[in-house]
Amino acid sequence: MASTLLSDVIIPAVYMSYSAVDSPELSAFYESGAAVRNSVLDNAFSAGGTTVHMPFWKDLDATIEPNYSTDNPADVAVPNKVVAGEMLARVANMNQAYSAADLVSELAGSNPMQRVRNRFGTYWTRQWQRRIIATVQGVLAKNVATYSSDMVNSIALETTVGVTSANLFSRAAFTGAIFTLGDHFGQVVAIAVHSIVYKRMIDNDDITFERPSQTDPNIPISAGGSVPYFLGKRVIVDDNMPVVAGTTSGFKYVSALFGEGVIGYGENSPLVPVEVRREPAQGNGGGLEQLWERKSMVIQPFGHKFLSGSVAGQSPTLAELKLAANWDRVIERKNVPLAFLITNG
Q1: Percent of the chain with pLDDT over 70
Q2: Which secondary structure element, helix H or strand E, spans residue 96, and what is its range?
Q3: Partner of 69 at 20 to 30 A CA spacing, among 59, 154, 188, 302?
Q4: Closest residue by Cα to residue 50 from 312, 292, 304, 329
Q5: What is the structure's pLDDT at 337?
Q6: Which of 263, 240, 243, 267 has the alpha carbon at shortest distance from 253?
Q7: What CATH class is the domain 6-61+83-343?
Q8: How do the domains of the chain map onto residue ranges?
Q9: Per-residue pLDDT for 236 more than 90?
Q10: C-alpha to C-alpha distance for 187 and 49, rounded to whole angstroms
Q11: pLDDT of 200
């Protein structure tokens, strides 16, 4: 006897095309230019394995003074050499599933699995964004632990006692962070902040709103037809940005300044990206539906390598991405368009 199953209703190829509507390309990190899809990372999946090796030639050392020519044959110049380096990324193989009993749909008058299908793409986009934030947290932790905080401007106090405007977000605080890049400060295109910090930016009247070229010019700003900018830098507001409790009281808020393309990412379609399953005996015969999705992705901050020193499983978790022990910087600071600002709000 033939029965109509959920797998008959969902055609994976069509379903995945709908999910792509909520791809990372619609996130603020992507739209700002801070995160870009990298073909090298995309192609790396075909080689298999858990890591992606990205060798590169380091720049010529301009601190080495040139030779000065003479007419003496005994003066023999010694050539220098160009040195190779390597960035290293770690692949994450992930999956998630939701299920619902048929009886739930019958009694509720609404199918929860339809809600799952409508929102699964958004779920993965948010996970992608959380992995970016966890990655930059790990880079920050490594920078503080090993590189004397040369990417950080921290003006926060460890207590609420004595906090003044000097410890809060300001233009001066921002420039203190951006100029950790030295004369490469112009590479910064975006800043990601917690909403508490964004409120301070609004209170300071430092935010301007610009319309994206693709937005209907007839949409008023109050209706969301605009994008916030601070001193020409795209502002990304995300309450997943780190909030650290002070050692005594209060909180410290971490803001991140991004250069264009400083976060590279790649994606791959797993062997079975979407899978639907029926469990007819569950619910005492009432039936149950399951919907599974699988994703393989890699997120890599430019100029760094993932060391995998503290990864317990096959793929790094969000907590493992945040560990200083799992990161190292492989190029000089000024060539990494990333900086951090730590304030009390």
Answers
A1: 88
A2: strand 92-101
A3: 59
A4: 312
A5: 96
A6: 243
A7: alpha beta
A8: 6-61+83-343
A9: yes
A10: 33
A11: 97
